[in-house]
């Protein structure tokens, strides 16, 4: 299976590349600057997401979007890059896997209140959560591309251990017995790679928790 990881130089992208390698794949890291790539992928494609063409991804079975846009000027690129990827994936069998956000997960059983709209949600993260939600909201309208969106738990732990197991959920925030919503980057990466193999959530969003 040929897999390309966009944003392979980022935190989530790096963990996903390493997990793919750990499970025997040879992923292609798609980066804007080869000189700054510090990861372990043997295959590298140097290209900005907005310059990617259908020919660039024609031979890939899976494209993983792990891109991050965090500044006020670039937040709009969550939606714009998603639209661009959909435009070049149309007509292909290539699957799009998206590293999503937790802010759009619901915190109630009736699924009326999203995490990002709760009083305790950090105001500094609200613009990012909204931008990621807008991209996800658009993705939900797409029917002619095979996509899957994976949201982490509320606390996405970069330094967390690779436990090797996790819990799966749908649109609602997962909380453990201690009342915490968390997942390590390492275990999130395992869930992403497992879904590539299991193909359980086609055209859907799911979430993962510790």
Automatic annotation (TrEMBL):
<dbReference type="InterPro" id="IPR036291">
    <property type="entry name" value="NAD(P)-bd_dom_sf"/>
</dbReference>
<protein>
    <submittedName>
        <fullName>NAD(P)-dependent oxidoreductase</fullName>
    </submittedName>
</protein>
<dbReference type="InterPro" id="IPR051606">
    <property type="entry name" value="Polyketide_Oxido-like"/>
</dbReference>
<dbReference type="GO" id="GO:0016646">
    <property type="term" value="F:oxidoreductase activity, acting on the CH-NH group of donors, NAD or NADP as acceptor"/>
</dbReference>
<feature type="domain" description="NAD(P)-binding">
    <location>
        <begin position="7"/>
        <end position="195"/>
    </location>
</feature>
<dbReference type="Pfam" id="PF13460">
    <property type="entry name" value="NAD_binding_10"/>
</dbReference>
<dbReference type="InterPro" id="IPR016040">
    <property type="entry name" value="NAD(P)-bd_dom"/>
</dbReference>
């Amino acid at each position: 299976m040929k897999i390309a990881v966009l944003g392979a130089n980022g935190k989530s992208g790096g963990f996903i590349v390493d997990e793919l390698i750990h499970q025997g794949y040879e992923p292609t890291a798609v980066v804007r600057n080869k000189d700054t790539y510090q990861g372990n992928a043997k295959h590298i494609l140097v290209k900005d997401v907005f310059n990617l063409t259908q020919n660039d991804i024609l031979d890939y079975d899976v494209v993983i979007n792990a891109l991050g846009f965090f500044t006020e000027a670039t937040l709009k690129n969550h939606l714009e890059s998603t639209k661009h990827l959909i435009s070049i994936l149309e007509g292909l069998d290539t699957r799009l896997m998206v590293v999503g956000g937790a802010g759009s997960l619901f915190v109630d059983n009736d699924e009326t209140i999203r995490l990002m709209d709760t009083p305790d949600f950090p105001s500094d993260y609200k613009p990012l959560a909204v931008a990621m939600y807008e991209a996800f909201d658009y993705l939900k309208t797409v029917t002619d591309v095979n996509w899957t969106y994976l949201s982490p738990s509320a606390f996405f732990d970069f330094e967390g251990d690779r436990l090797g197991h996790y819990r799966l959920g749908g649109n609602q925030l997962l909380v453990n017995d201690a009342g915490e919503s968390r997942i390590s980057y390492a275990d999130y990466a395992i869930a992403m790679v497992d879904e590539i193999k299991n193909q359980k959530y086609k055209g859907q969003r799911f979430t993962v928790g510790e």
